Amino acid sequence: MEGSSSKSSNGEFGVFCKCGQEAPLEESRTKKNPGRKFSGCRNYKTSEYCGFFIWYDQYVRQREKNIEGLPSSVVQKSEDSVGRQTNEDNNIDELKKEVKVLKRKMQKMEKQVDELYILNQRRNMGVPSNCTILLFAIVMLVIRWLF
Fold first, then answer.
1. Among residues 34, 33, 37, 32, which one has the least CA distance to residue 11?
2. Which residues lie closer than 8 Å to 36 by C-beta, 6 or more apart?
3. In terms of CB atoms within 10 Å, which end of the chain has fewer, N or C?
4. In this predicted model, what pLDDT tens digit does every residue of 69-115 receive, in sequence order?
Protein backbone atom coordinates (compact mmCIF):
# COMPACT_ATOMS: atom_id res chain seq x y z
CA MET A 1 0.00 0.00 0.00
CA GLU A 2 3.08 2.17 -0.20
CA GLY A 3 2.65 5.06 -2.62
CA SER A 4 -0.28 7.25 -3.40
CA SER A 5 -3.96 6.60 -3.83
CA SER A 6 -7.23 8.38 -4.30
CA LYS A 7 -10.64 7.48 -2.95
CA SER A 8 -13.09 5.91 -5.35
CA SER A 9 -16.18 7.86 -6.31
CA ASN A 10 -18.55 5.36 -4.70
CA GLY A 11 -16.11 4.28 -1.98
CA GLU A 12 -18.46 1.52 -0.81
CA PHE A 13 -16.83 -1.85 -1.11
CA GLY A 14 -18.47 -3.57 1.86
CA VAL A 15 -15.18 -4.98 3.16
CA PHE A 16 -14.09 -4.53 6.75
CA CYS A 17 -10.52 -4.52 7.99
CA LYS A 18 -9.25 -6.27 11.12
CA CYS A 19 -10.00 -3.10 13.11
CA GLY A 20 -13.70 -3.60 12.38
CA GLN A 21 -13.96 -0.44 10.28
CA GLU A 22 -15.16 -0.37 6.70
CA ALA A 23 -12.17 -0.39 4.39
CA PRO A 24 -12.97 2.08 1.57
CA LEU A 25 -12.39 1.28 -2.08
CA GLU A 26 -9.54 3.40 -3.39
CA GLU A 27 -7.57 3.73 -6.60
CA SER A 28 -3.81 3.39 -6.84
CA ARG A 29 -1.82 6.15 -8.49
CA THR A 30 1.54 4.44 -8.32
CA LYS A 31 3.68 3.75 -11.39
CA LYS A 32 3.56 0.02 -10.67
CA ASN A 33 -0.27 -0.20 -10.34
CA PRO A 34 -1.85 2.91 -11.91
CA GLY A 35 -5.63 2.98 -11.61
CA ARG A 36 -5.80 -0.40 -9.85
CA LYS A 37 -8.49 -0.50 -7.20
CA PHE A 38 -7.79 -1.70 -3.69
CA SER A 39 -9.16 -1.61 -0.20
CA GLY A 40 -7.14 -1.11 2.95
CA CYS A 41 -7.31 -0.18 6.60
CA ARG A 42 -8.35 3.44 7.19
CA ASN A 43 -5.64 3.69 9.82
CA TYR A 44 -2.78 3.29 7.32
CA LYS A 45 0.32 5.20 8.44
CA THR A 46 -1.00 5.48 12.01
CA SER A 47 -0.27 3.47 15.13
CA GLU A 48 -3.71 1.79 14.86
CA TYR A 49 -2.96 0.29 11.41
CA CYS A 50 -4.04 -3.39 11.43
CA GLY A 51 -2.22 -4.36 8.21
CA PHE A 52 -5.35 -5.12 6.16
CA PHE A 53 -4.94 -4.65 2.39
CA ILE A 54 -6.55 -6.34 -0.62
CA TRP A 55 -6.58 -5.65 -4.35
CA TYR A 56 -10.16 -5.35 -5.61
CA ASP A 57 -9.64 -7.57 -8.68
CA GLN A 58 -8.15 -10.36 -6.55
CA TYR A 59 -11.04 -10.07 -4.12
CA VAL A 60 -13.59 -10.33 -6.95
CA ARG A 61 -11.86 -13.38 -8.48
CA GLN A 62 -11.75 -15.12 -5.10
CA ARG A 63 -15.39 -14.31 -4.45
CA GLU A 64 -16.39 -15.65 -7.88
CA LYS A 65 -14.54 -18.90 -7.15
CA ASN A 66 -16.35 -19.23 -3.84
CA ILE A 67 -19.74 -18.50 -5.43
CA GLU A 68 -19.32 -20.89 -8.40
CA GLY A 69 -19.71 -23.93 -6.16
CA LEU A 70 -22.93 -22.70 -4.51
CA PRO A 71 -26.47 -23.37 -5.78
CA SER A 72 -28.01 -20.30 -7.45
CA SER A 73 -30.75 -20.05 -4.79
CA VAL A 74 -28.09 -19.64 -2.08
CA VAL A 75 -26.29 -16.99 -4.12
CA GLN A 76 -29.56 -15.06 -4.65
CA LYS A 77 -30.43 -15.24 -0.95
CA SER A 78 -26.95 -14.02 -0.09
CA GLU A 79 -27.20 -11.08 -2.51
CA ASP A 80 -30.69 -10.22 -1.19
CA SER A 81 -29.37 -10.33 2.35
CA VAL A 82 -26.49 -8.00 1.47
CA GLY A 83 -28.98 -5.57 -0.09
CA ARG A 84 -31.18 -5.63 3.00
CA GLN A 85 -28.15 -5.18 5.25
CA THR A 86 -27.05 -2.16 3.21
CA ASN A 87 -30.52 -0.62 3.51
CA GLU A 88 -30.57 -1.31 7.25
CA ASP A 89 -27.09 0.21 7.61
CA ASN A 90 -28.26 3.30 5.72
CA ASN A 91 -31.34 3.56 7.95
CA ILE A 92 -29.17 3.22 11.05
CA ASP A 93 -26.83 5.94 9.78
CA GLU A 94 -29.79 8.24 9.09
CA LEU A 95 -31.22 7.58 12.55
CA LYS A 96 -27.84 8.28 14.17
CA LYS A 97 -27.66 11.60 12.33
CA GLU A 98 -31.20 12.44 13.42
CA VAL A 99 -30.35 11.58 17.04
CA LYS A 100 -27.33 13.92 16.88
CA VAL A 101 -29.52 16.74 15.53
CA LEU A 102 -32.15 16.13 18.22
CA LYS A 103 -29.50 16.06 20.95
CA ARG A 104 -28.16 19.42 19.75
CA LYS A 105 -31.69 20.85 19.75
CA MET A 106 -32.30 19.47 23.24
CA GLN A 107 -29.05 21.01 24.51
CA LYS A 108 -30.08 24.38 23.05
CA MET A 109 -33.49 24.11 24.70
CA GLU A 110 -31.95 23.14 28.04
CA LYS A 111 -29.67 26.16 27.80
CA GLN A 112 -32.67 28.39 27.03
CA VAL A 113 -34.57 26.95 30.02
CA ASP A 114 -31.57 27.66 32.26
CA GLU A 115 -31.31 31.21 30.92
CA LEU A 116 -35.04 31.81 31.42
CA TYR A 117 -34.85 30.42 34.95
CA ILE A 118 -31.98 32.78 35.80
CA LEU A 119 -33.81 35.70 34.19
CA ASN A 120 -36.94 34.86 36.18
CA GLN A 121 -34.92 34.65 39.41
CA ARG A 122 -33.36 38.06 38.72
CA ARG A 123 -36.77 39.61 38.05
CA ASN A 124 -38.17 38.22 41.28
CA MET A 125 -35.24 39.34 43.44
CA GLY A 126 -36.24 42.38 45.45
CA VAL A 127 -39.47 42.83 43.55
CA PRO A 128 -42.51 42.31 45.77
CA SER A 129 -45.37 40.24 44.44
CA ASN A 130 -48.77 41.77 43.65
CA CYS A 131 -50.21 40.25 46.85
CA THR A 132 -47.53 41.93 48.95
CA ILE A 133 -48.20 45.31 47.34
CA LEU A 134 -51.96 44.94 47.83
CA LEU A 135 -51.51 43.94 51.48
CA PHE A 136 -49.20 46.92 52.06
CA ALA A 137 -51.75 49.28 50.50
CA ILE A 138 -54.56 47.91 52.68
CA VAL A 139 -52.44 48.24 55.82
CA MET A 140 -51.60 51.84 54.91
CA LEU A 141 -55.28 52.66 54.34
CA VAL A 142 -56.27 51.08 57.66
CA ILE A 143 -53.52 52.99 59.50
CA ARG A 144 -54.59 56.23 57.87
CA TRP A 145 -58.23 55.60 58.65
CA LEU A 146 -57.41 54.86 62.29
CA PHE A 147 -55.28 57.96 62.83
1. 37
2. 27, 28, 55, 56, 57
3. C
4. 666 666 566 666 666 666 677 778 888 888 888 889 888 888 888 88
